[in-house]
Amino acid sequence: MNAKQTAQHSRIAVVTGAGSGIGRSVAVELLRAGWSVALAGRRTQTLEETAALAPEGTGGASIAVRTDVSRPDDVAALFAATVDRFGRVDLLFNNAGTFGPGGVPVEELPYDAWRHVVDTNLNGAFLCAQAAYRQMKEQDPQGGRIINNGSISAHTPRPHSVAYTATKHALTGLTKSLSLDGRPYGIAVGQIDIGNAATDMTARMGTGALQANGEVAPEPVMDVADVARTVRHMAELPLGANVQFATVLATAMPYVGRG
Question: Which of 101, 110, 185, 225 is exposed most, by the fewest CB atoms within 10 A?
Fold first, then answer.
């Protein structure tokens, strides 16, 4: 996409899991930067709260679309609403996810819990990526960008996290396949792997998290705004350039080395 084509339309993003945490922070960062954003999540109220965090009149427009990403009809409705309102899709931040029941050994994990994590983290990511891919392939000018939220767990697991870890490893394969298949259509696909951003999901880190050696120890966290700025950087690259994989983590968290 050249500069003339870029000037002909506003940048349009779809952010899933936009009602809290990383999704909320990224959505607000994009809105403040002038993007128009479709906010997707299970609860309309929290999506509207996200939209209200962006200063009025200083950024892009937004719509809130109640979406369960594990449901194909919901995902189709999300992208139809986005295109109906904004005309196209330039970015999908594929962020919606769940850790599932924490601290449950693999032999005790209920199948329903496994399925819920897989349906949300993997099937939901696929459905959203597929819908974005279809739109980006057909729109004029053609192309766009998909950024998948992987996790440090896409590299190495925490104890008792088999469902979450399996889905995040699978997301890396999804990212690579989408990146390859998107080349002919100007669709750039990358992944951000995040470790210990300060959100509700990581609130327990300050008091103690189970370590691989069986000990419970507090872990440092980083400002979620640092993640949002990284996603924005990835999103605003020209389509001829791509951050294939980025890892953003709290500097001193137990990941590099042996703890």
Answer: 110
